[in-house]
Protein: Phospho-2-dehydro-3-deoxyheptonate aldolase
Amino acid sequence: MTITGTGRISDQRIDKIVPLTTPALLRHELPLDETLVSAVVEGRQAVTRVLDRADDRLLVVVGPCSVHDPAAALDYAARLRDIAGRLADDLLVVMRVYFEKPRSTVGWKGLINDPALDGSGDVNTGLRTARSLLVEVLRMGLHVGCEFLDPITPQYIADTVAWGAIGARTVESQVHRQLASGLSMPIGMKNRSDGNVATAVDAIRAASVPHVFPGIDVSGAPAIMHTRGNTDGHVVLRGGRGGPNYDAAAVADALRLLREAGLPERLVIDASHDNSGKDHRRQPLVVADVADQLAAGQRGIVGVMLESFLVAGRQELDPTRELVYGQSVTDACLSWDQTEGVLTKLADAVRARRARRAVGQTLA
Structure:
């Protein structure tokens, strides 16, 4: 058989190609004014101070597993803003505003990829919806946290983000380590989904040095990125298939790995995922253990992550029925009432740790 023409060897499995709006155009349509720019810079600096323990508060990244309903997310943000203000002496609260959902096999990929929740894949609308929500959250006075999955989307939203994460499924990826090396905010590296923490430590080291790689610039044009390296990396312990890793022994082991690698000894504990056995009702139990460690003087724990929404649990995406307002369509979350109690418990633990430090009884 004779094959002629590039059409016979290219795009054999592509149904269609849709033009993608440029980051510059989206930023022009949904800009950050000087007040919001200052708020993002201040948020990043505040996170860095907590990571460096120049600020003895606890970083708390809290919010829905993945945003599917912007209206419900803003409702949640209004409640979070109020309690964040009340507990600001002890907690640095960052709202978890995740738009990209990594999948082990198949499933809804998140608001950017599929904003209509129906598989239509209107990415241009998804990007606009996501950036619009982020701008509104910033206007409410909250700091924003996101996980970065697709290496192109940061150009559209990263200027709004105070704290970022690389997930358990991508922490070993060279592409994501390179991406993290050029991102402008502190980045948490999650341990691998099998529980391996050394991979996250390796990711921090890799992202801390300069890299050169292809990407896109703000105009959407292909570009070669020359990064400086990101020195604000830290490990996020989220458990693994072998079990949880939030207890004192697991924390000590993770701190040892960081110490041996010559890296700052700082950990964020994810109370969800495999640390809770993927049971949202166990998140408060994880937090109780972490709070005990904090109260006992553990300074290596600099943050906690929580999956939380208005309504407890999760629901399936079902086109035949109306969704429950404020309930997750991905991982099960704590209810708002439960979240308030958990945040208060963490603030109490920070005050206890502060008191112990005052008398010289803190741990590493």
The mean pLDDT is 95. Residues 18-315+322-358 form a domain with the TIM Barrel fold (CATH 3.20.20.70). The two ends are 70 Å apart (CA to CA).
